[in-house]
Amino acid sequence: MKKSIVCMALASAGLWMSCSTTEKVTEKDLTGNWIEVMPVNQHIVQGVSLYEKGEAASIGMATLQYQHWGLTGDSRLVLEGKSIGNGQTIEFADTLDIVSFSGDTLTLGKGDMYRIQYVRRQDDKGLIGGSDVAMGYTWSEMLQKKIRVFEEGSRVHSVVNPQSSSAGYLVFNADSTQLEFFDPETDVVLDRRMRPDGTPVWNVEDDDTYLVEKSESEWLVSRRGQLLYATSGIEDLVKAVFVTDDGEDIEVAFFGKAGVAQMSRKGIYSLLYQYRTASGYGYKNPVFDLRGKGQEAVLTTLADGSHISLKEK
């Protein structure tokens, strides 16, 4: 019973074969931090720290606490500790086969039951264990520490998938020269730059993957002209479809609080910014100017002054 606790904890995946190392492994060889990177997230890890004098500690496992370790005469690894859960604490001792060992790679097994590979880690920087994740922590590359993004970041909602229950977060450093953007799929560090008109944006130089900016009171995250996230999401979104004299459809999404309009034409997105007009509405960027009133609008290409008349469907 005691041994099965560790077996279940370690057997996340493995090669189902039986073999063992033929080389003598010493305690000095194994001293260090040994981690298994979780497949769902490269920052989420679990494993074990093997210290000198037979002391051990768990990495990323709050309910399985390693305390001691050692080697048997036939070079098998013995782990001892406590399993905590369901209101009780159970002491365990488990003996594992050292299937293979090569410098910074260690494979442990249990007969033919499972194989699991560990890699040696020199420090714990950037590692978020399962217990950390359960408490809402993630690793910030920019701040070089684990944080709760929902406590330290500004929340933005998806405008691409409004049904999503997930959100993105913007975390700034102390002087706002950098920010880290977190969403369910990735996180990226962006640097602050100034546009010719003096407004700040955050992106990666010579890279058009993400751009963060503030328009009115809204934080916006866009990519290649397509708006992905906004502080208010689609709360005040108004969609319109215009048709040209040639029968071409041009879709425009108006975000009132942010004062922006996203235009989609022939599969290409453009984000336009609202400006004051005597009547009607006006949105533009360095390439296009969209002026309209009622169901009529005019789209002007600023480079050559050409314009297209639009009528809302």
Automatic annotation (TrEMBL):
Residues 245-304 form the C-type lysozyme inhibitor domain. Keywords: Lipoprotein, Membrane, Palmitate, Signal. It comes from the Bacteria. InterPro entries: Lipocalin-like (IPR024311), MliC (IPR018660), MliC_sf (IPR036328). The keyword NADP does not apply. Residues 27-120 form the Lipocalin-like domain. Residues 1-18 form the signal peptide. The keyword Transmembrane helix does not apply. It holds the Pfam family MliC. This is Lipocalin-like domain-containing protein.
